[in-house]
Please model this.
Amino acid sequence: MTTLERLPTVEDVREASAVLAGVARMTPVLRDPLLDELLGADVFVKSEFLQLGGAFKFRGIFNKVSSLDQDDLERGIVIASSGNAGLAAALAARLRGTSSVVVMPEGSRPDKQAAIQTAGGTVLISGDSSDAALERAQLVAEHEGRAFIHPFDQLEVIAGQGTVALELIEQVADLDAVVVPAGGGGLLAGVALVFSALRPDVQIVGVEPEGANSIQRSLANGRVTPVEVVSTVAEGLGVRRCGSLTFELIKANVDRVETVSDDALITACGFFWNMLHVAVEPSGAAGLALLLSTDDFSGKRVAVVASGANIAIERLAEAVTASSLVLGR
Amino acid sequence: MTTLERLPTVEDVREASAVLAGVARMTPVLRDPLLDELLGADVFVKSEFLQLGGAFKFRGIFNKVSSLDQDDLERGIVIASSGNAGLAAALAARLRGTSSVVVMPEGSRPDKQAAIQTAGGTVLISGDSSDAALERAQLVAEHEGRAFIHPFDQLEVIAGQGTVALELIEQVADLDAVVVPAGGGGLLAGVALVFSALRPDVQIVGVEPEGANSIQRSLANGRVTPVEVVSTVAEGLGVRRCGSLTFELIKANVDRVETVSDDALITACGFFWNMLHVAVEPSGAAGLALLLSTDDFSGKRVAVVASGANIAIERLAEAVTASSLVLGR
Model:
């Protein structure tokens, strides 16, 4: 981010919603009576793992790509991503008839690379962190004249992610709390700004991995604060530094941000598989991981945003074993 | 089946729909632009893999259990199943406050057994085929006074499965065809009777595994005809003998029944994972397997009922590799 953008408002989210109509999926809210029994709460799983590309990312990125003027659009787009934002960008570019470059940090998952390529994106492996990949993407934007799409810290991106909250408000009445995974903070910021404007009584809780808690640190310091070294199985949340816009929105609108361990994330993936019969990646399971590790939500009506599907098969196998042990199978 | 039941009608399906309201999930219809491009058709994935218990089975079985009078209900239920119908029965029994016994054939998957037990069902392993397990379940019903629930061949069960079609008609206009996996034929019979009554112009196509094509054989012979030896990776469709009621309905209302190979089923599971980012079991992938192996549906608006999620992890890993090869990854 070189220029200071204004913060998105709920009006921007409503506009995003119109842009996404008929393109993004209105994802279902799943209930499960066994899960409710186990957690002692009414749990509403907002199933963004069913979004196009298998993650919520498509909403914000398609909204951003759709905001480009025709000249910019024709020169193509570039984004930095561990995978999900990259796939969303490749899909958005294809649907808008342009090309995409996705800069992925070294060590990025081969299956996520393949999915981006299948969707028509060009993968460029560069940098040893999310920060380094972002810098490289900005260079590509300058050199190739491509529009730089930030995976989380642009007005239209945040506004697009906020459409999750508009749907949730329509789908579930009388929520007490919404639990949202947070990496760079785009989804959390978007959801929080909508609830703050339309349902201010609903508690908004962010969840970060213990080894990637930039938002928690930033809130403690009062300014954006990176983590030294990212360490988490949840590559979608493995961000060194949360956004500037997202931080402002989170500071203003989020009730609190908690962390969960990698073990808790893996176990939660196994619960999704064994109890809800769906594949959810560690990043997407952060909300359920928090619910499984606290009784703060007992007796409450709580939505968890299950934000992405794209778990590696080997990881899923590990998760199923872990949760089977917890379930005493 | 000892007594001759009447065939269900669309009115029975409407009643089932009222029974299921607020309990079963109205499953979403997923679109995917890449899948449409690949198949050269407008494909509507009716996502019954998101049903409670991970399969469409819950609809019919909950409807049947709900039709029991209080005395019968209190004595509990018994069913025979390779897994999905058993889990549906265990969930239905729990929700209705009674007990369930699930007779599973030898060699049934341990993870499906565990899921049934987690839901409160008692698993009884017995018999070397679906037929043998059915006979044992009937004996348990007699000896323990439990209500015998047939996994596919009872009026209320078929009527419940038909609610998939009522939803589909509401969700998608102007379909040309609906492709439905078939084992015992409960889902196919229920869907076909509804379309025949309400949208007779829509083609209804059943899909069986090559190694479990009792319906195809029965249609050729004009009477219910078992296969000698069932051989398929799709354990949910691995039925020796289709139902009597289901056969009558299928004969009257289905346009044609096709078969697919095990390789095609596995590849289709991989496509669901790689392109739609969801886990679908081989039985549930039969519709997509057919679409991938023919161009009969080119340019058509075709719904595939993706009927179940519950794939074993090892099988999923195999499927992802198989489809990656096809996709040239």
